[in-house]
Amino acid sequence: MRSLLVLPLLVALVAGATLDFEHYWTAQEMNEYIDELVRDFPTIATAVNVGTSTEGRPIRAVRVSKNNVANRPLVIVEAGLRAREWISPMSANYILHEIVEHYYEFEHILDNVNFLVVPLVNPDGYEFSRTTNRLWLKSRSVNGNGCFGVDLNRNFGHLWNTVGGSNDPCSDSFVGTAAFSAPETAALRNLIQANSANLALYLSIQSADQMVLYPFSHSATTNPANVAELRNLANSVALTLMGQNGRVFTSGGAGLLQTPASGSSIDFVAGTVQPDLVFTLETGAGGNYGYDVPESQMAELLSETTYGFLTMAEYIANNK
User: Fold this and answer.
1) Catalytically annotated residues
2) Where is the catalytic site (predicted)?
3) Which of 47, 126, 289, 319 has the greatest number of beta carbons closer than 10 A?
4) Could you report the per-residue pLDDT of 227-273, keeping only the tens digit for each?
């Protein structure tokens, strides 16, 4: 596998702006990058309208399929569920940069695997975190009494609101008024279900606990039937991540290594759609809180995370 770029990297856009992977993009810049990819690489990249956020922003995805062959095993990558985890959507965009713009370096993977990448599930919260409150985690739905937002990673429908969330609309861990009450999670659910036939692996990119996690989030003792396969691949990915920059990554069940919580995206996928492989990749940490990675460290972490993703992608190409 080739060495990924960790130096300043410029990406020319249709609008005449210039994006690089050393600053955090706006939601609009991410949309412009999607437009650029599908315009310049029409035989491999297709834009997908996932849905619309509470405040009316588009939620978009890129389908990556060499020569638009539909029946390959599919990997879905979801990022940007939580607003303040800016490195998450940037990681998804960097993954797209690698597998689309440098597709010729990943022929074996792209001959055998299709991808569906959703870089920013929560554009409203992301923009609010950028412009108003850096610590903001939730979406931006109006809850009443001056409270806003749903923790989207507590709003999915598998065992919703059974453990680890809050019914307080002002809480950072507010689960919503019902499963999939947030338009963002409902849109992602619909996308997942519409693409379930070929789904081989689902990956949620979050930050920044430096972990590779598999279901279930709601329990420390409940595991999918193929837990041995999940454990082995999670270990391999963690070793790959540690081999890049020396950061320590742990791997294991999400409900064991983190506080158990229901309503996560990986629990929904593993508990209802049930593809073979479902993971959360918690990226490397930086800054004061872990998730507020300084821009000076961004390129290093994006490369690191992408190596972890490629380890999973190669496993699918070779085994599914």
Assistant:
1) 282
2) 282
3) 126
4) 999 999 999 999 999 999 999 999 999 999 999 999 999 999 999 99
